[in-house]
Amino acid sequence: MSDILQNHAKRKKRNQLLSAYALVLPAFIVVLLIVAYPIVNSVIRSFTVRGQEGFTLANYVYFFTEPRELANILYTLFVVVVTSVLSTVFAYALALYLRFVKSRVSLLIGRLYLIPRFIPGMVAIYAVIVTIRDTGVISRLALLLFGVEFQPALMFNTAGLLTMNLWFNIPFSAMLISAALAGIPDSMIESARDVGAGRLCVFRTMIVPMSIKDVMVAATFVFMGNVGGFTTPYLIMGSVQPKMLGISLFDQFAKYADMERAAAVSVIMFLICSVSAVVYIYSNLKERAWEKQ
Amino acid sequence: MKKTISFLVVLMLMLGTLSGCGGGGNDDAGSAGNKKLNVWVAGSDNMRILYEKWVEDFNSNTEYNPDGYQAVLQFLPAGAGGQLVEDKLIAAWKAGQKETDFDLVEMGDDQISRVMGEVGPDLLVPYDPAKIPNLANVSVRPPIGADYFMPYRGTTVVMAYNSEKVPNPPKTVEELTAWIKENPGRFAYNTPGTGGAGDSFARTSVYNLMPEEALMSDDAKWKDQWDAGFKYLAEIHPYLYQSGGRVVYPNKNQGSLDLLANGQIDMCPIWADMAISQIQQGTLPATTKIYQIEPSLTGAVNTLAIPSIGKNPEGAHAFMNYVLSPEAQLLQLKEIAAIPLIKVDDSSAALVTGLDVTKFRTQSIGELYVEFNKRWDEEIATLS
Question: Are A251 and B377 in contact (CB < 8 Å)?
């Protein structure tokens, strides 16, 4: 009798397992086909040179020794790090404001800052270009209101690129960080205040530790999202050197038709992203000190 | 997953059957006096609109279509990743198909060199000028396959300028060079490799200093003669459009056109049809004018050709004659700002006067363009 019951339970368990696999399988196959396969393909390709047999490091040697290409890699790192740091700082400040200041203005900002998420990227870029170019809205307003000839000189300039990146990424990071801050109960903060903790003390010892993980997550997302940036630098930077790796990749495949070098650029971008992926996974796995007990 | 796959397979089979039925219907129409004429065109949406109007007008036109051929547009949108006309045509030929629906095909210079290079003239029948009376008014011919590809429209890169700021634009390249130097920051061309206008300006600047035949050759030997031209491009570099204190090149044709529209520059090379349509739409100021410089920037003619595996050469000739009629030429000027190959009496023709298609300078440097763009990126874009 107990045998039958056991068998029944086993069968039930196996069936559950099978149906679980069946549910995961479609997504798994799609990932395999459209993510894993192209990555493997690119990696293999990046170690070849057209018209030559066998394995070679020539493409990587080219990108890491040719001064122009090396400058592109360093420039990309610079832009991405500055974008991540600035957007995280601004977004953290914004999220704190929205969480702890309750006023009409903060309520309004709390609604407005979501709008950029709903504007298509291309439209946003052109809108910002119309505003910041040397004959744009800023320049015209300066002339109209103050009679000053003012040229922002943001177009074809890293400052303009960073401005655009911040436009996209501050609202995005603020959204992630806001969610974390919303999870901090008012009662905790109030009780800390009741026993005499100052604002700064509450911020330093309670709010920061409880939200830092999500801040790191937001920063890594911004980092990864911007390594492959193409449309923004393409439209704002023109031919200016050094270039973002996204543009360098475009040059290799579209302008020079060199698929092997293009594959190598992709792998380099992938490696840069994986550094931040490690940070992301690490900060997700790490137990918070106060959670340990 | 399995279900999805089998569903997709069934769906594809159904679609296949349906299109098969469609094909069957075509054959029926074909046997009934062969009045049906399939016109194959690939391109952007403005081409579809133009050809739809042409087909509709042709089908009811008693002057150019007295035999009552019924043209049907087979349009393939470009840039959607699918096969284009030349791919399908070459594939049909290589598969040994005869009596196909490819009655008439539209081709630009890239397609012409591809078809002639991959298959050769056997794929086409020479058109009969006697059956295309309107062709008598057209003197321009494509540089390759002139007996097979009948030109019907021109496109060329021109100079666009702000006529308020530049009442007398420079006529020759020497005058242009002097003008650029006298007016620093008022000229721009887009990064080569990001748009045909910048390509044409950079290439002609280099090839103007080389033997005439070089521009029609993909022989690698010409690379050695690029030095003088690149020196010229470097020479004008400091006088081009600046932003934030350094010379920059916008990306894409539209990039330099935007600078012109906003008064940040006074002159730039651009495709004639882009400039004309944007002047008409008002996105470029009405003071914008275009003209051709001497020696000219490059252009090309688009053509129609009759595949040898088609079924209706008579109808094809009637349609070819129709598109060279004054009505059809005016329509394409209005619809896509194409440069007419015959004289068109209309106010909109004023925009293209002075653009003589017979003087279009054609170019075909083949794979050398890769080396060319690379060298530009390395030598010119890096100048401070």
Answer: yes
Taking an 8 Å cut-off on Cβ atoms, the answer to whether A238 and B191 are in contact is: yes
Instruction: Tell me the per-residue pLDDT of B97-144, one tens digit each, with 9 for 90 and over.
Output: 989 999 999 998 778 878 887 888 999 999 999 999 999 988 888 888
Find, among B347, B329, B327, B350, the residue nearest to B338 by Cα.
B329
Helices (H), chain A: 2-31, 37-46, 58-65, 67-100, 104-112, 121-132, 137-141, 158-182, 186-194, 199-202, 208-227, 231-237, 245-250, 259-285
Instruction: Give pLDDT tens digits for B145-186.
Output: 889 999 999 888 999 999 999 999 999 999 999 999 999 999
Contact across the interface for B262 and A133, Cβ inside 8 Å: yes
- Spatial distance between the Cα atoms of B83 and B90, rounded to a whole number of angstroms: 11
Task: Give residue limits of the domains in chain B.
Answer: 34-154+300-345, 155-299+363-379
Tokens of A227: 């390594």
Q: Measured between beta carbons, which residues in chain B are less than 8 angstroms from residue A156?
A: 243-244, 246, 248
Cβ contact, residue pair B193, A251, below 8 Å: yes
Using a CB–CB cut-off of 8 Å, the residues of A that contact B are 25-26, 29, 68, 133-136, 153-157, 234-235, 238-241, 251, 254-257
CATH class of the domain whose range is B155-299+363-379: alpha beta
Pairwise CA distance, residues A220 & A226, whole Å: 10
Report the C-alpha gap between B316 and B69 in whole angstroms.
9
In CATH terms, the fold of domain A66-102+153-291 is MetI-like fold (1.10.3720)
Contacts A26 to B, Cβ<8 Å: 1, 4
pLDDT, tens only, B211-264: 988 988 888 899 999 999 999 999 999 999 998 889 999 998 999 999 999 999
CATH number attached to the domain at B34-154+300-345: 3.40.190.10
CB atoms within 10 A of CB A150: 13
Chain B environment of A256 (Cβ under 8 Å): 370, 373-374
The pLDDT value recorded for residue B48 is 92
Cβ distance of A255 and B374 shorter than 8 Å: yes
- What is the C-alpha to C-alpha distance for residues A57 and A48, in angstroms, rounded to an integer? 8
Domains B34-154+300-345 and B155-299+363-379 share a fold: yes
